[in-house]
Specification:
Two copies of one chain form a homodimer. Residues about 220-235 of chain A have low confidence and may be disordered. With about 240 residues, chain A is an all-alpha fold. Chain A is built from seven helices and no strands. Chain A starts with a helix and ends with a helix. Chains A and B meet through helix 2, helix 3, helix 5, helix 6 and helix 7 of A and helix 2, helix 3, helix 5, helix 6 and helix 7 of B.
């Protein structure tokens, strides 16, 4: 490749990483806003969250297109190929995070006539603080290619799972105590599950930060001599 | 390209489509088995379903790898590129279908000590019959590149959504009537949601069958003159 093409290629790779960072920022924003609409039962704000999700969807489609074009045009190998594949996967995860936040917002609209109850939403708020921290940390880990920080995110996912399990039981107890709360609590169960799944996506992203650096998924027993590793090594 | 390379390339494309068909068959199987374990509250069988999901995950990873290699090595354009991109996306959807079935199986293990109740599970069974039919039809539409059948799948998704909504209300009513059923019904709510989401993935696959034929997603306002269309047209 001549110098001009190499420079354009590097710029395309940098642009792809920049798009992930931008998408990640938007994903953080939408999660934080979705949870805020839930604690305030604010249907107007919920509609804004739903509209914002469409922007994340569009970014994912654009990123996929650019990644495929990059692979076809530049035939990247080794680390470059891994970066592009990781960007493709991470954009899928961020798109799903947006969907999960949108689903919380949709439920807020359904339950917006209910009486606000700090007691009921407190657990969901706490869970979402943990999930948001995981999302923030894993996006930092991606931007800084920090494998160690990514590993911390993976390890902390079980704290979210444990809190979710205890919240699930707590909400069932509220349902049993007061049948008038059953509908509200059922929607809160789903909101809690969505947040727990946002944590799972943070973990997926962390696995892809590891993959970018190591060329395999963590805990994978895939032999390093397989075909993709071969092409990654320049074959 | 010489004749030998063209033949190898065609074989690779056919192999990719074959893998989607195989993954699809496995996804149909796992959904049907997950629902069966639910109606029978069969924890042993549920463990088999969980194990089977790992096979679908592995197939998705393999397919992604092969698709990326194909794009890098063959620099496909037009219809071939669309087929590969669609296969990538469809394999993601099928992998998610497997996850949702696995999640049903995990819940069966949790509630397996409950008393079997045909009344409670009947609605979930009915919903899953519709979702399974959608999955079967869309996989046929993919194999036969049948855009019309794919459109029918997209149209029928709202029937699943409507049935899910009525089932959600029904399960809440059972919870209010008998607080001892709250835990069981909460898990059934999630199982019903999982099945409704399997229907969404069938719709996503249908959209990709359309994309394979038309070069754009249905209802998309993306201009045909964008970059990916340009390379698809051989630029």
């Amino acid at each position: 490749m001549n110098e001009h093409i190499v420079k354009a290629y590097d710029e395309e790779l940098t642009a792809l990483a920049g798009q992930i960072t931008e998408m990640g920022g938007l994903a953080e924003e939408i999660v934080s806003e979705a949870v805020l609409t839930l604690t305030r039962l604010d249907a107007d704000k919920a509609n804004e969250v739903i509209a914002k999700d469409a922007r994340i969807d569009k970014m994912q489609t654009d990123l996929e297109e650019q990644a495929i074009l990059l692979i076809a045009r530049r035939q990247p190998v080794a680390g470059d190929l891994r970066d592009i594949v990781a960007a493709l996967r991470i954009s899928n995860d961020l798109e799903r995070v947006g969907d999960l936040a949108k689903n919380i917002a949709k439920r807020v609209i359904i339950i917006s006539d209910s009486v606000q109850s700090k007691k009921l939403t407190l657990g969901v708020e706490h869970l979402s603080e943990m999930a948001q921290m995981q999302l923030k940390n894993v996006l930092d880990a991606y931007a800084q290619r920090d494998e160690e920080m990514a590993n911390l995110v993976r390890e902390r996912d079980e704290e979210i799972d444990a809190l979710y399990t205890s919240l699930f039981r707590e909400l069932l107890t509220y349902m049993m105590e007061d049948p008038r709360q059953i509908s509200m609590c059922a929607h809160l169960l789903f909101c809690a599950k969505n947040i727990e799944r946002i944590g799972d996506h943070a973990t997926n992203i962390a696995e892809n930060v590891y993959y970018m650096e190591r060329g395999e998924m963590p805990g994978s027993d895939r032999p390093k001599s397989d075909e993709l590793s071969a092409i990654e090594n320049g074959a």
